[in-house]
Amino acid sequence: MIGGLFIYNHKGEVLISRVYRDDIGRNAVDAFRVNVIHARQQVRSPVTNIARTSFFHVKRSNIWLAAVTKQNVNAAMVFEFLYKMCDVMTAYFGKISEENIKNNFVLIYELLDEILDFGYPQNSETGALKTFITQQGIKSQTKEEQSQITSQVTGQIGWRREGIKYRRNELFLDVLESVNLLMSPQGQVLSAHVSGRVVMKSYLSGMPECKFGMNDKIVIDKQGKGGTADDAGKSGKQSIAIDDCTFHQCVRLSKFDSERSISFIPPDGEYELMRYRTTKDIILPFRVIPLVREVGRTKLEVKVVIKSNFKPSLLAQKIEVRIPTPLNTSGVQVICMKGKAKYKASENAIVWKIKRMAGMKESQISAEIELLPTNDKKKWARPPISMNFEVPFAPSGLKVRYLKVFEPKLNYSDHDVIKWVRYIGRSGIYETRC
Amino acid sequence: MPAVSKGDGMRGLAVFISDIRNCKSKEAEIKRINKELANIRSKFKGDKALDGYSKKKYVCKLLFIFLLGHDIDFGHMEAVNLLSSNKYTEKQIGYLFISVLVNSNSELIRLINNAIKNDLASRNPTFMCLALHCIANVGSREMAEAFAGEIPRILVAGDTMDSVKQSAALCLLRLYKTSPDLVLMGEWTSRVVHLLNDQHMGVVTAAISLITCLSQKNPDEFKTCVSLAVSRLSRIVSSASTDLQDYTYYFVPAPWLSCKLLRLLQCYPPPEDGAVKGRLVECLETILNKAQEPPKSKKVQHSNAKNAILFEAISLIIHYDSEPNLLVRACNQLGQFLQHRETNLRYLALESMCTLASSEFSHEAVKTHIETVINALKTERDVSVRQRAADLLYAMCDRSNAKQIVAEMLSYLETADYSIREEMVLKVAILAEKYAVDYSWYVDTILNLIRIAGDYVSEEVWYRVIQIVINRDDVQGYAAKTVFEALQAPACHENMVKVGGYILGEFGNLIAGDPRSSPLVQFNLLHSKFHLCSVPTRALLLSAYIKFINLFPETKATIQEVLRCDSQIRNSDVELQQRAVEYLKLSSIASTDVLATVLEEMPPFPERESSILAKLKKKKGPGAVSVSDLDEGKRDGGGELNGAGERGPESSVVSTPSPSADLLGLRSAPPVGSAAQGAGSLLVDVFSEAGPLAPASGVNDDGFLSSEDSAPPLPESDDPPCGPVPFQSFRFVCKNNGVLFENQLLQIGIKSEYRQNLGRMYLFYGNKTSVQFVNFTSTVSCPGDLQSHILCTPTKPVDPLVEGGAQLQQVLNIECLSDFSDAPLLNIRFRYGGALQNLTLKLPLTINKFFQPTEMGSQDFFQRWKQLSLPQQEAQKIFKANHSMDKEVLKAKLLGLGMALLENVDPNPENFVCAGVVQTKAQQVGCLLRLEPNIQAQMYRLTLRSSKDTVSKRLCDLLAEQF
Q1: What order do you get walking across the sheet with B835-842 strand by strand?
Q2: Distance from C-alpha of B272 to C-alpha of A50, rounded to nearest angstrom
Q3: Which of B131, B287, B534, B909 is the most exposed place for a label (fewest CB within 10 A)?
Q4: Residue B671, preceding bond cis, omega within 30 degrees?
Q5: Chain B residues interacting with chain A (CB cutoff of 8 angstroms)
Q6: What is the pTM of this model?
Q7: What pLDDT sits at residue B251?
Q8: Are A204 and A169 in contact (CB under 8 A)?
């Protein structure tokens, strides 16, 4: 049970303060500012306990959101709520910034009243919220509209209202993945995992029933039993093992449990259908090969090769390699074959940027780093080389097999719906030790 | 000092600092700093040499970054280069960087020292000052090693500028404080003293700080400063406020200097030279007079400066403690402050008065303010001021106002702050005891105390009540009655139950005549509290019950019923169960005679320093009257309370223990013997509280003897080859219990008893650490042929493990075969955290322990004296007194020796004669002693005659150390 919720700007000034329970006093606001925002050491833990009060915070650019409680709450629930809160705010007024928050503070208080009641999270579905919390001032609603909102919000399908009509029934499906890697200098994978999301944007009329299918190993194997051995072997290659997944509330979990089929009545507009995580058979889009040589006490030679490891027809974008430099660097000379490289003193790193790169290619950078001799005997810790990129496929190997739409009441069928599928693989923490 | 021109300001630095200040977040700040660091690194690395200005600028930036909390690991070399610049600003920045950032280990120290040396030799006063400031700021040992010789030279050189002298004095002070061994006294010391006469007031102020510090360590070398200080002080005090120009602070001439001068004078006794003293007294009078003048300014700084001088002057007056006139004036002045508006002044006044109260001259004057102080105790809003008021009340208390003060303190106690309650309780308890004229008042007060603040009444307080009640038979009846009444309250504190149980158990018979407090009523009253009490109290109550059986046979059946019930006889606590079983058996088996002997009334306690006083000393609240004063007071008050005859410092000596005391305390026999080290053995605790079980009081109880620590060691204690730890075995000649040895790890307590030629010694090994000792062994060996004289055998080997904080007991059986002079050795080995500890001690076993006192008349004595007239039978010594020659003290010591002190035997009443028989297995050696003190010459003549020459010799040696 959340006792209160505060939003601060980067200076620690309170922008929004909403207290839900009596056990949270006014001094809690200052306690968080003093102990976390203005702390001498940077506070890394998202949960801070000050004088028996727990503060859970997330930071969006320069804005701090902190949920406060004196009770022993489920921390995961609180963070889920905070992230949801960010989503809702983004959906209402775009980027979360100090100015936007100041401009919309009446709206935010209205939202906070709705999505949190006496500290218990309530319906935070943007689509539903938008039906009765609007930015256009007070629009007098008729009795019917009001009763409709009530029945919809309290009814079985709280996330979709009835009577939606579109001329064109259209739906967009995005598979967004971020791949995380830690690799040893010799090229051994120390840890790797992919966390992915399936995001859907639907513009469908009526109350359609949807069914989503992907190359989940369990489903494929089950089907494989019924089919031929050849079929099973073929599909087994392409199926993926999902470690864990969570669904949007619209998905019928009982059906997933019994048949492992994902069926649901979608909300209108954009939402996140599922989240998942895989650790096996990950396609690593890039391989980084570092070579660091210390020449005496005042010089360091660094050579880094990157190799792209996917179909040559695909193009990776926004590639950025970050090579950390020692703290006593006094000068850097860089030569690279492709893209642009620059020594950024403020970040103590060489940043090498490449706009585009096709699969099965290789590129190289070499740098000479001059060092200032120091009387400090501490050795340089050699932080890992990190990398950012974006590739047009799913590194986990996930494939959408089908997305079927049934609307028995209205006269459109599955074939009339226009469907779009897109895969985007991004780097998470993608590091190679050197 | 060269002025900093406008163009010299560093623009780059200003821009950088404003950038940092404008950073929106911490991350942005770190980014900016990283960028700047990279820039500076590339600049320092660059091939072309930097000019002084940019070097200064970058070093400055580095310093700023460091002060923001980031590590700086370069730029030291550049800073050192700046030191050799000729520009003031560059040098200054260089020194600044070095004093903030350079740590002692770096190899740069040599370069830095070199630069400093150059500056010191440069004759440019600004540079010299910079160098001196740097030395003082760093103040490391290396610096001291390099410059400790140089700075005194600069300080006393004739041609040094005033500002440099000032810096040099302060720099030397700093070096002296960090490494006093490196600053050697020399011929400069006398010249430093003459700096007090310097023209420049700044130099005097700086020098006086140095002199004060130095003279605290070597008072003799700086003796001459007293007269100089006095003349300086008188010049300042008598000057008009305009004379000193720069050094006049809000119309007060040189307040800092005056305070320092007065403080310096407090390091020395009053000047002997009459003229100097007269001048000083005049000064002090002027200061006191000035306090009466109307203020020249309304500003708070003016009154602060004035009062600072005044308070220093008063502390000096108190320090001298020889001018009654001044003391009384000071007291009156403080009295005015007591009612001042300013809380700080009231606090200071109370604090100073506390010390004034202990002076004989001003004690009476302090007493006149009693009403104000009591008022302060009640109404002050600040707890620290109230605490001071309580201290002062304690200090000013004497017989005339004790009742009032104790009553006030008691009434305040009900509302007192929790933090000072325990101390208040102790103070009330001490005052009540010290100034008690009638015991019923004392008993009332203490019982009231327990009623009001039971939780804060420590064990010592109620032990003390019981000791006093038992020793004074005229209060026993009253105490029993009062306790009985107090116990009737529905809720009483456990301490009250303890006192009640003990006193009713001993003296319940004195009030049994009254039908309202018949034995059964008494018992029922006590038993109604039983179930609410903790285990130790229950144990005490059980002992009280068995005593009831003895006192009132009619209660026997009831009490046996209680003891027999399951909750007692099957109690899960071993102590309670054992008591219940044993008492039940005792009451049913033993005949009334045996019962009466076993459960006899407790014998009077040997007189000792009040355990409460010891406790207060341990607490030693700030501002408490110094310990010696308390002792003094104790000597006045204690005597009348407890009868001078019994008083003596040899507290733990039990003179001829009566059987019941023996049963309850020393022999490990039932019923309570097994409890000898348990927490539940309250009876024993009260009895043997000065023994090793209570180390604090064990150490303190021989406050008298502790002064012997500086006495020469025993002549015959030729260290055996294994080199035992030297200890003052003579401390134990006249007493049987105490702490034998103590260091950081281990404490060894000792308790011993002797009968005829046999003895038993209890050794208590206390582990003072929190870590266990392993492989703990202790062996007793008799070096040489000692074995044929004395047998010393442990009853069983000690447990090899001693847990942290635990105590181990070992029992030695001792048999004296024939007379001996050396003592057995106790060897202790154990491992503490891996390190082997080895310890050898001499056991405090001397021949006089086996004395059997012999009473005889005058005629008898002199007849025997003549029989032992052979020259080898007599041993005589004439020696100077090492300790007080007080008659009572001597008496107590001789009693502790074990011989019978014969009264009215010697024709001269000043002399002491004693007689006794040394019991050994082989023979009995009769022994006569005569001690003739000569008070005027502070000498003694000690004569011993015995039938065996070695015994006379040995005893004579032993005893000569004692007086």
Answers
A1: B773-781, B825-832, B835-842
A2: 64
A3: B909
A4: yes
A5: 24-26, 31-32, 34-35, 37-39, 41-42, 44-45, 69, 73-74, 76, 106-108
A6: 0.57
A7: 84
A8: yes
